[in-house]
Design brief:
The structure holds two protein chains of two kinds. By secondary structure, chain A is of the alpha/beta class. Chain A is about 40% helix and about 20% strand. Chain A has ten helices and eleven strands. The chains are: A alpha/beta, B alpha+beta.
């Protein structure tokens, strides 16, 4: 029987091959078949999660809440030193220099990444902006968010900080960062579903030493990760509680 | 900076709900909320602080050791009406999420405004404490809150 691994659709496209290497590494470590299924959008992935088609997932913190509290998944690992942070940027020639200078009626370019969008909207609150007085333009990737700013088709853009940092200098130099979040405790995590609980001890043993051998280190590098760190049940619950406080109702 | 800031110092006795009180030096000077940060703390079910993130330490002016183990009301500013906190406790003790604008007192007597959200932490069906996350409020909400709270004192 093959298990299904999936990855939150907000990973950088440059690292797709890294996840295939990880899938191969995983099958060797666990000695079972694992199929990697990648999705273009969050909604399709969530539907498959609800239909029990996912056994192992590298999830964003927003989805971790549903996975743990509703689907019985357990978070076992998180990437070392890679918190999820959000950047709000404008065109470099924009007269706006602080969030507070933004006015009602602006157009925000964003993706369907729930964490980045939620945090971006929270960082607009000091300007009295919310869903009722901004126009949201949802696009597929952070590169398209940047293009919207450069072409003047949006006033501000929301980016996952990692994705922003990986944009080319040519694109980045045409943008200006208004604010970058510094939350530190919100991050992606690797979650194991109820069907794979028996593999947790071996998975933990292999994941936490993965960066110590050459092959494992190479796979991590191809995913743009340094190492996996253990994640306790209470740390997971804490992160989920924190996300709950941020959800805009 | 608030329109109400005078920079003046005054000694005020703050009475807490548990019958205790303390004399605090209050300075009418606002410390701006830092962009992009969240202040995060957790308490036990009685309001005793069990976790404080670095932004909380930085903004409160206390060390982490001074914060852990004391009641969250150490941050209560005398300009905050008791009725606001009564509403908070009534909401979270009913297991619901509370939102509100709060003027917090720093160790040095100055203050900072936050938009606060508090949620109950439920583990295995039992209440084990509360998580409070504070973020940057808008100036218009601060002004509205200043005016409202003045009428509730």
């Amino acid at each position: 029987m093959a298990y299904n691994l999936t990855v939150s659709p907000d990973f950088a496209p440059d690292h797709i091959s890294g996840w295939y290497f990880f899938n191969t590494w995983l099958q060797r470590q666990l000695d079972v078949g694992v199929h990697l299924e990648l999705y273009d959008c969050f909604e399709q992935q969530r539907e498959d999660i609800r239909n029990n088609k996912v056994d192992l997932i590298y999830a964003n913190p927003y989805d971790a809440s549903m996975l743990v509290r509703e689907m019985g998944f357990r978070a076992i690992a998180r990437p070392q030193a890679r918190p999820d942070e959000t950047v709000i940027a404008v065109h470099v020639d924009s007269p706006i220099n602080t969030v507070e200078e933004l006015q009602a009626g602006i157009t925000v370019a964003t993706t369907d990444d729930p964490d980045v969008h939620t945090m971006g909207m929270i960082m607009l609150e000091p300007a009295d902006l919310d869903g009722s007085n901004v126009t949201t333009k949802e696009v597929d990737t952070y590169v398209i968010v940047a293009k919207n700013l450069l072409k003047g088709e949006a006033d501000v853009g929301f980016f996952l900080k990692d994705a922003f940092d990986e944009l080319s200098d040519l694109i980045k130099n045409q943008m200006k960062v208004l604010v970058s979040s510094q939350i530190s405790v919100v991050h992606h995590s690797l979650l194991v579903g109820p069907t794979m609980q028996e593999f947790i001890p071996r998975l933990e043993e292999r994941l936490f030493s993965m960066h110590k051998d050459e092959k494992g280190k190479g796979v991590l590098q191809s995913m743009n990760l340094e190492a996996w760190e253990p994640m306790s049940e209470e740390e997971t619950e804490f992160m989920i509680d924190l996300i709950d406080t941020l959800v805009i109702e | 900076m608030s329109d109400q800031d005078t920079g003046e110092c005054r000694e005020v006795t703050i009475n807490y709900f548990d019958g205790t009180s303390r004399v605090a030096t209050i300075v009418d000077r606002e410390v701006p909320y830092p962009d992009g940060k969240l202040i995060v703390s957790r308490t036990d079910s009685k309001g005793i602080i069990t976790h404080a993130n670095q932004a909380f330490v930085d903004m409160s002016g206390y060390t982490r050791d001074e914060l852990i183990g004391v009641n969250h009301y150490i941050l209560r500013h005398p300009d905050m009406p008791a009725v606001a906190f009564a509403g908070l406790w009534e909401t979270i003790e009913a297991g619901k999420k509370w939102h509100g604008y709060v003027k917090n007192l720093r160790k040095d007597g100055s203050y900072y405004w936050v938009k606060a959200t508090v949620i109950p932490n439920i583990r295995n069906g039992k209440l084990v404490g509360y998580t409070s996350v504070r973020r940057k409020p808008s100036r218009s909400k601060i002004k509205e809150s200043e005016e409202l709270y003045a009428t509730l004192m």
